[in-house]
């Protein structure tokens, strides 16, 4: 600060009682910003003046103002705010790497497509700063699917399993509603249930529910236990001339008659076979019973 007076005044500027600018150049730092008091003094008196110093500097982006990892929820407003320091205050823009997408308050609601890495840039007349931000999108369970292995049509006594799969973030937990039976075994993660030695109690609707903190979704599958081909029952004729043999195996092979001679038949197609002229079927309380005549009556 320069001052006029006679005799020529002495001028001293300082802040908080500490004089600065005594003639030697000093390196400007941000700490130099503030209000200074300048006093001009001679033998005739003193005049004072306040001086405000502003220090400008290039932008910077730090973790507190711009966390490197963000968690969004599907269906909420898509907004990526990032604070930066600098003087003058910098302008900040964020864009998804690879497609230039700029989520802002006017953008659509968050979808799973918003997940990815964004680059935020802060700019003022003195330079710019960059920072990458990774965005993860959480969503409620979706696309619940159930699969029965090896098939949803199960033969009595066979083993099968029902597997449940669902998308979701955080990964969903699984719960089941199914026919109660003693031969059930659930996987450690509860995503599947295994059944050993299927019985009538195991047939019915199997429902899996996937749940996370954003919601739940269920899917179902029907399991059928087939008891129509449990066994062939042997029967004897009153004269001892007719013999019938039964075997208990779904889709197995049974004794057949080719012109009433010993051999093998497949139960599934034996009745309709032209070679099984001696094969007949009867209905009983327990289901259908197949008999095969081995010798001529």
TrEMBL record:
This is ICAM5 protein. The keyword Transmembrane helix applies. The chain crosses the membrane at residues 230-255. Residues 59-136, 141-224 form the Ig-like domain. Gene3D superfamilies: Immunoglobulins. Keywords: Membrane, Transmembrane, Transmembrane helix. The gene is Icam5_0. One of its GO terms (cellular component) is plasma membrane. It comes from the Eukaryota. One of its GO terms (biological process) is cell adhesion. InterPro entries: ICAM_VCAM, Ig-like_dom, Ig-like_dom_sf, Ig-like_fold, Ig_sub, Ig_sub2. The lineage of its organism: Eukaryota, Metazoa, Chordata, Craniata, Vertebrata. GO terms for molecular function: integrin binding. PROSITE patterns: IG_LIKE. SUPFAM superfamilies: Immunoglobulin. CDD domains: Ig (cd00096).
């Amino acid at each position: 600060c320069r001052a006029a007076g006679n005799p020529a005044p002495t001028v001293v500027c300082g802040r908080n009682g500490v004089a600065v600018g005594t003639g030697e150049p000093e390196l400007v730092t941000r700490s130099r910003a503030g209000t200074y008091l300048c006093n001009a003094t001679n033998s005739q008196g003193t005049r004072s003046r306040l001086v405000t110093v502003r220090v400008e500097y290039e932008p910077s982006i730090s973790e507190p103002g711009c966390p490197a990892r963000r968690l969004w929820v599907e269906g909420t407003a898509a907004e990526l705010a990032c604070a930066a320091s600098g003087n003058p205050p910098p302008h900040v823009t964020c864009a998804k790497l690879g497609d230039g997408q700029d989520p802002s308050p006017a953008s659509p609601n968050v979808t799973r497509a918003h997940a990815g890495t964004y680059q935020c840039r802060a700019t003022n007349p003195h330079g710019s700063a960059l920072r990458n931000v990774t965005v993860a999108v959480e969503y409620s369970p979706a696309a619940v699917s159930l699969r029965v292995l090896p098939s949803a049509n199960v033969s009595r006594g066979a083993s099968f399993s029902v597997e449940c799969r669902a998308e979701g973030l955080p990964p969903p937990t699984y719960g089941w509603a199914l026919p109660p039976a003693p031969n059930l075994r659930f996987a450690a993660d509860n995503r599947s249930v295994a059944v050993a030695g299927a019985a009538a109690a195991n047939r019915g609707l199997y429902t899996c529910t996937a749940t996370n903190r954003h919601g739940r979704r269920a899917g179902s599958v029907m399991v059928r236990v087939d008891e129509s081909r449990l066994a062939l029952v042997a029967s004897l004729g009153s004269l001892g001339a007719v013999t019938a043999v039964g075997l208990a195996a779904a889709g197995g092979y049974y004794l057949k008659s080719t012109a009433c001679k010993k051999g093998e038949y497949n139960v599934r197609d034996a009745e309709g076979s032209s070679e099984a002229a001696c094969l007949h079927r009867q209905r009983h309380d327990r289901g259908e019973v197949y008999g095969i005549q081995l010798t001529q009556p």
